[in-house]
Specification:
heterodimer, A: about 110 residues, alpha+beta, two-stranded antiparallel ribbon, elongated, B: about 900 residues, 24 strands
Chain lengths: ~110, ~900
């Protein structure tokens, strides 16, 4: 695999997919804060998005604006085929690993 | 009021983040701010906003977008497209392009030509590495009537007297101008007057390149001579002349001990040869010798230690002179002048021995620079105005570009590229033209310099910057204007220029152009008048039909009697006489004292040696008493003739019969006659007191008065007679009036130049006017048509245009006249005899400009007024 995916990046990438065609920096940040109950700064989400874009897992386009944004347009991120593949690979490897855990391992914990 | 995100934070973010991410991030921050406001206090929201702004500093936000990748995908392609667009535009507007390029090229060429010259003038003596430490010692003195003069000369005892006395002075050397040298190599002999007696120390202070021989010893021995390469070729046919011998004045053998390379033309010392100083002997009959502290007939150069303050050194020298003559109230005052200041800083000093030192004039340089800048300004204004006017014609193109998506900056760049291309190609043309023209101009103006590659290259930076500035300033205004235009308006071509507001930018430029032209024309008038005045003014003697002959003093004493006898046989010859100094030359001073007064009343008077027939030959009126007489033998030792001025100067009511002492002559002399004042020197100076005595040394100048002006015959007569009696001794003859006109050469050259440039300025201003009017008529041709349909006469149509320019020219005159009047009067102050500037000079110049300028306008308005209105109005 050319580029690996960090844990945080994976979450962001997943959320891009979750918020289909509506994902932008702030929406992802809010989602992480509210759904995952994790504290995260806006800038770290943005940085993750740009890194994902660099790696070719997402692409961005200029989206709509609103009054709250001072008329500035959003940058809407969309998952690419490569992104989808990476997510799938990550999921598969996890599933595989989950499947390989012997039952005994979780007993008594 | 709704709470807003902190503006300072926004601005800070916008400052550091300038790429495509900017909007989306700032939008997110804003959006979050409003969300925060619902949950937190405004204060906390603001803090979170600030923190957000700071936390975004990262490589993604700091990176700038490459413009090419976003706005202009291909910068070079864009430039090419701009260039093609410009060329097409110029091709479509050939007249405009031609006028612009012609005007700007002329302006730049004039500027360059003057720049070459001024650079040369400012470069004088800078080839001497040690120029900061080398000084010439000049002497100033004040006579009893308070007239102060400064001579570039020094007394012969001065240099030996101070040698070794001052620790800060490392070297001192003196020179004597070698006047009247006849140098001979066998049969080959020439009369040379560009040389000095000098010693080896001189060559150590001022280093000149030697191609053979050693500068440190070449001038040590008596009877040595150092010559330039050119002179070696002239006498020996080759430059290997070291060891050969030249004969000086048919008697003194001089051994050639060194050959110098060509003396640079930017050296204030202008010589072909140097004879070793020990060879110099004071000629018989001179009142002074080499021990004199008063005889200002030498040139002294000193070299000082690095850190020496020249003023301090000068004070020490002043003290020295006070010590020599403690009783003297007005001792000679030494003035220490730095080498780099000599060329331009000596125009108010005189060289008493009339050697051939070069002197320049700061005033001339400043005038030239001013003219150059003014011409360039006119050309630049033309360019700016025309580019400005014509840019409206392209508003449609600009509109379309904007519709397609061109940004304001793109359009500005396109226009600026265009003006830059024009100015830079004009610059190239100007360089070509000025290099071609320079030799011709230099010859006309008698500029003693040739262009070299380095000289041309050294002007490149300043010229390129100037050209860029012109391009920028000419292109910027239309670029700003055009790029601002509303797309729809520019597409519908609703834009109009041609407001009649006199304070509009373009009209201000025209006003300035007119002012400059009027100024130059008026200056031409005044200069020409002054020069004509100087040439035609009564000088107190009859300068027509007199030939001045210069020859060696020995030849004069040998041949004069025979020559005179021979010449007097011809009826054309009316009179012949001799003198030591010629009119037009600087006359030397002598101390004079009435015998009935004490030595403290001594005064300085101009002094000359003249023979018996001088006053008759020169046509100088005798007011009282008599002039020198052949019958009266005692005249040669006893008599003096003074001018009217001298009588008042000496405070004598009845001068004839009174006795005076001369400091340099033995015994008292009786004033035998008073003559009318005459201008013995140039009219820059007022007539001073003059005393003339019969010669006691050999003379140099001979005057022959002819009955009529018949130049070729008269000179032929003089020359053939001379050849018969003198067996080929050298002599030079010139007409006296030619000689005198030489005195105003520098003014005359300035006037040529100003005349030329004022012509040029009128031409350029008219060219600009022509362009503007052509354009305006083109734009207003429909208005013309409608006016005509409504019954306007051709005359009223003319007036419509002409009125505005008449006003402008009149305003220009009122602006420029007072300033110019002040400066012209200052220039005239340099002359003791000067014209009064007539008031009508300014209106006349204005009228001249108006006529020429309006001719260019009227030609076009006539054409426009004649046009059939139906033809103009039909096509819509």
């Amino acid at each position: 695999m050319k580029s690996s995916l960090g844990e945080f990046e994976e979450i962001v990438l997943l959320l891009v997919a979750v918020q289909h065609n509506e994902a932008y920096g702030l929406s992802i940040t809010t989602a992480i804060e509210e759904k995952l109950r994790r504290n995260v700064t806006l800038s770290s989400v943005h940085t993750a998005l740009y890194r994902l874009e660099e790696k070719g897992f997402v692409r961005s386009e200029v989206g709509g604006s609103s009054k709250e944004r001072g008329g500035r347009s959003k940058r809407i991120f969309k998952i690419t085929a490569a992104g989808k593949k990476t997510l799938e690979a990550s999921r598969e490897s996890r599933n595989m690993l989950w499947g390989m855990i012997p039952k005994i391992a979780f007993e008594g914990i | 009021m709704k709470l807003q995100p902190p503006q300072l934070a926004q601005r800070f973010f916008s400052w550091y983040c300038r790429n495509h991410l900017h909007d989306s991030i700032l939008g997110d921050l804003d959006e979050r701010f409003y969300l925060d406001l619902q949950k937190h206090s405004p204060r906390k929201a603001k803090i979170r906003y600030w923190l957000g702004v700071f936390s975004f500093i990262s490589r993604f936000t700091l990176k700038r977008d490459r413009k090419t990748s976003y706005q202009n995908p291909h910068a070079m392609l864009m430039l090419k497209s701009n260039l093609i667009g410009s060329l097409r535009f110029l091709n479509r507007n050939k007249g405009f392009a031609f006028i612009n390029i012609l005007g700007l090229t002329i302006g730049m060429t004039s500027f360059l030509l003057i720049l070459f010259f001024v650079n040369h003038e400012l470069s004088f003596d800078n080839f001497h590495q040690n120029r900061e430490h080398v000084f010439r010692v000049n002497f100033a003195f004040e006579d009893n009537s308070g007239n102060k003069s400064t001579l570039v000369n020094s007394p012969p005892a001065f240099a030996p007297g101070i040698r070794g006395k001052f620790p800060e002075m490392t070297r001192v050397s003196q020179m004597r101008y070698a006047m009247n040298c006849l140098l001979a190599n066998g049969e080959l002999s020439f009369y040379e007057d560009h040389g000095y007696y000098a010693d080896s120390v001189f060559l150590e202070i001022l280093k000149f390149d030697f191609s053979s021989g050693s500068p440190s010893t070449a001038l040590d021995e008596p009877n040595s001579i150092v010559i330039t390469k050119e002179m070696a070729k002239k006498y020996f046919g080759h430059t290997n002349a070291v060891g050969s011998t030249l004969l000086l004045n048919n008697g003194i053998p001089l051994k050639v001990t060194g050959i110098m390379s060509t003396i640079p033309t930017n050296s204030h010392l202008n010589f072909d040869f140097l004879i070793s100083f020990p060879t110099y002997v004071v000629p018989d009959g001179y009142a002074s010798d080499l021990t004199s502290w008063d005889w200002l007939g030498f040139h002294t150069y000193v070299e000082l230690e690095n850190q020496t303050d020249p003023i301090h050194f000068q004070e020490k020298l002043e003290q020295l002179f006070r010590d020599i003559h403690p009783e003297d109230d007005h001792p000679m005052q030494p003035i220490v002048q730095n080498l780099s200041d000599i060329y331009l800083g000596s125009s108010d000093m005189t060289d008493d021995v009339a050697s051939h030192m070069r002197t320049g004039s700061r005033l001339n340089i400043y005038s030239l620079m001013a003219i150059a800048v003014l011409i360039l300004i006119i050309a630049a204004f033309n360019f700016s105005n025309l580019s400005n006017a014509i840019s409206v014609n392209r508003s449609k193109g600009t509109g379309i570009r904007k519709v397609i998506g061109a940004q304001r900056r793109t359009i500005m760049w396109q226009l600026l590229t265009e003006t830059m291309v024009i100015t830079l190609s004009c610059l190239v043309l100007a360089y070509g033209l000025s290099i071609l023209l320079f030799p011709k101009i230099a010859w006309l103006m008698e500029w003693d310099l040739a262009l070299s590659f380095t000289k041309v290259v050294s002007t490149l930076p300043i010229m390129t910057i100037t050209a860029m500035l012109i391009g920028l300033s000419a292109g910027l205004y239309p670029a700003l204007l055009l790029s601002r235009f509303n797309i729809i308006k520019s597409l519908k071509q609703e834009l109009k220029i041609g407001s009649r507001n006199p304070f509009q930018f373009k009209n201000m430029l025209m006003l300035l152009q007119f002012s400059i032209s009027i100024g130059l024309i008026s200056a031409t008038f005044v200069l020409t008048q002054q020069i004509n005045y100087l040439r035609n003014r009564a000088t107190g003697f009859d300068k027509d039909n007199v030939v001045v002959i210069k020859m060696l003093p020995e030849d004069m004493s040998r041949y004069f009697k025979v020559y005179k006898e021979q010449l007097m046989q011809y009826s054309a010859v009316r009179g012949i006489s001799r003198s030591d100094r010629s009119v037009g030359e600087a006359w030397p001073f002598s101390g004079i004292l009435r015998t009935d007064e004490g030595p403290e009343h001594g005064k300085m008077i101009f002094f000359n040696l003249t023979d018996h027939d001088y006053f008759k030959t020169m046509g100088i009126d005798v007011l009282d008493g008599r002039t020198f007489s052949q019958q009266n033998r005692r005249d040669s030792t006893d008599a003096v003739v003074i001018n009217r001025k001298a009588a008042t100067f000496l405070d004598l009511d009845n001068p004839v019969g009174q006795q005076v002492h001369f400091f340099d002559l033995e015994g008292p002399r009786t004033i035998i006659g008073v003559v009318e004042n005459f201008n013995y020197t140039s009219l820059h100076q007022d007539i001073g007191p003059v005393a003339m005595v019969l010669p006691f040394i050999d003379l140099e100048y001979m005057y022959v008065r002819f009955a009529d002006s018949n130049p070729t015959d008269n000179i032929h007569l003089l020359e053939t007679t001379w050849e018969q009696i003198s067996s080929g001794a050298p002599m030079e003859s010139r007409f006296l009036d030619d000689n005198l006109n030489q005195l105003y050469k520098s003014e005359e050259r300035l006037s040529y130049l100003i005349r030329f440039f004022s012509g040029l300025s009128i031409f350029l201003a008219s060219l600009g006017l022509y362009g503007i009017v052509a354009f305006m008529i083109n734009n207003r041709i429909k208005e013309f048509g409608i006016r005509k349909v409504l019954g306007a006469s051709a005359l009223s149509l003319h007036l419509l245009f002409v009125k505005q320019y008449v006003y402008q020219v009149l305003i220009a005159m009122t602006l420029v006249a007072p300033i110019l009047h002040y400066y012209l009067n200052r220039w005239l102050q340099a002359f003791a005899y000067r014209i009064v500037i007539e008031w009508w000079v300014y209106p006349l110049s204005t009228l001249l400009l108006l006529v020429i300028a309006l001719m260019t306008v009227i030609y076009q308005t006539i054409k426009a007024a004649r046009e059939n209105p139906s033809g103009i109005l039909r096509s819509e």
